[in-house]
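[Solved] Which block belongs to which protein?

Original post:
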Amino acid sequence: MLLVVHHPDYVSPAAPGSRFTFDKYGLVMEALRETGVAHELHQPEPMPRQWIEAVHDPVYVEEVLTQTVPRAKELRIGFPVTGRIARRSLLSAGGTYLAARLALAHGFAANSAGGSHHALADSGTGYCVFNDLAIASRRLIAEGLVERILIVDLDVHQGDGTAALTRDQPAIFTLSLHAQSNFPVRKQASSHDIGLPDGLGDADYLARLAEILPQVMADHRPDIILYQAGVDPHVEDRLGRLALTDTGLRARDRFVMRTARAHGVPLASTLGGGYGEDRMAVARRHVASMLALAEEAISKGR
């Protein structure tokens, strides 16, 4: 059965003066229900402050939790940080951690939020407040649950924040495939980066992924994969520059899971990016990603 981590407070009203809406996270659950696929919901706890501060500057953490983020930082994030947004940022990080715990026990679990890979140590950016991937990774290692983690980031945008926040952590390997000319302008150095040309389609994208992922798995030998399964490489995405189809995204996700299963490694997924005026269409892409991962996990057994 598909294990999904979700909290009602993942959904937050748009902050005053911002066009960025958080209803996608509710729509994802609606889209999942309309598929009729059996799933089991798990509700996360907010990530404790000590683990947020293990990754982020305590001054910035205090700014978020007291809703005193300077205007310059809010502009980098893309919206004002309200109390509701602060809470969902803690819950999102807690959700990725819980998904990882569930994956360790069952092979696969999906966080219905998360993938905030642009957040840096002292500021959020690119619609990301706290970097749940880096935070969950640090906690899993500190608690002795795993020794090595692979973060596979297939969002159309480079995982710059994740790369920067884990650079001094040899136990965490970051792999990012992204549109080279897309945001962010200034890239950080992941453990391995593949910058792709605009307009790249299914066949060439999948070929590049197949070249690198099995080798990274063999070299790093992770105990778990945290997968940033952004759907913004889709050809119709408003902020993407690649040209993957629904079929291509499905093949991408099944290949990632198939590779994980071949090495006996559990996988926890996060949503990541997906943008468009038809938000239900975006939500359905995210659900299709979860289902592709689950189908491949089940087909291989555990």
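(Second protein starts here: sequence line, then its structure tokens.)
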Amino acid sequence: MLVWLKLIYYFDIMITLKNIKLDNSPSNYIPSPGLLNALEVAYMLKRPLLLTGEPGTGKTQFAFWAADQLSRTEGFHNTPYIYNTKTSSTAQDLFYNYDAIAHFRDIRQSEEQGGGKTTEDFIQLKALGLAIANAIGRNDLRLSSRILDNSNVIPDKRGSVVLIDEIDKAPRDFPNDLLNEIENYEFEIKEINTRLKVTDEEQKQRIIIVLTSNFEKNLPDAFLRRCIYFHIDFPTRERLFEIIIKRLDISSDDYTNIEKRVNDFFQFHHYPNIIKKPSTSEFIDWIRVLQNDNLLHQEFFQEDRLVMNDTLPKYLPILIKNKDDINRLLAQ
């Protein structure tokens, strides 16, 4: 009889986790002169600013930068009110939320135990609705204190930046349903038959709307006519270098290495047949890790060929997010 012995070896696997200090302060964002001009025009005309561009080019970060800057000079809230668009979004979602399920449960419970809450207890202002309420001012709003408290509407009038992120994800009717509301800064809370509306120019000056889209062609013409449009181009080598120096604590001794890594990045970005091209934000992460590991000097390309070494598998997935792309690069 044969006896098979199964030998099991246990290895102590050590995992070393390194913490990288990330400085994502909005003040480190560098808007182009053209982008600043577009914001100024949008503000003058009281129109939404629609930003397009490749993912990772800074469309969303610009709204945070604008809120941060305006909080210092114009008394705006220092972060934007954000609405992340979904494929199921409706126009109401941008202004307020009514929790009908919780209200129904409360009604059932009150029938058994007595008491109960009102409809106002289940309404909360969101994004643009909150910005409109803050522009009008709490004391001038004809709303229940329950709604104002649920929504954290402050006593003082205040300006706000509203970020409607990735609006191209929404159903096609979503932008059209917002035409009147965005143009006139008004909306209705149907459950309590109440309409909020900005009534004067001073109040309108307290609201800036920034929309982002990866594909402007998906937006209806009627909506586009009401927007100020700006496309954020993919940064040049010089601008990408400037972004890295501004965003990260880079020693001047490493400036030459950063220039080389910028060139490496563009070779990755323009590499033939790459399906998912790396973005600016991925480049920043890549540099952060290389800096943390003291490898800013590491060469990744010699002429047009990728340098094969033991470190490549660790750092390549920071930039390249497609399995076929990684295999294609490593197989050359």
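Accepted answer:
You had them paired correctly. Confirming on the second one: The first strand starts at residue 49 and ends at 52.
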